[in-house]
Amino acid sequence: MRKISLTAFTLLSVLSLSFFVGCKKNINQTSSGAVTSSPAAVAPTLTPTPAILPTPTLTPTPAVTPTPTVTPAPTATPTPTATPMPTATPTPTATPVPTATPTPLPRYQVGTVEDLLDRVRFTGASFAAVDGNTGEPILSYHGTLKRRPASLTKMMTAIIAYENLPLDTKLSVTAESLRWHDRFDEDGNLIYKGLDNEMYTEDSVEGTTYTLDNWLKLLMLRSDAEAADTIALGVAGSYGKFSDLMNAKAKELGMNDTFFDNPVGADFWINEETGEYDYNFQLITTAEDFAILTKAYMDIDYLAKIAGTATYNLPPSLDGSKEKTRKLTNFNRLVAEKSNPQFHSDLFTITGTKTGYTDESGRTIALTATDTAGHKVCLVYMSQSLDESQNYYTQSFAIMEYIFRYCFPADLP
Question: What is the pTM of this model?
Answer without folding.
Answer: 0.71
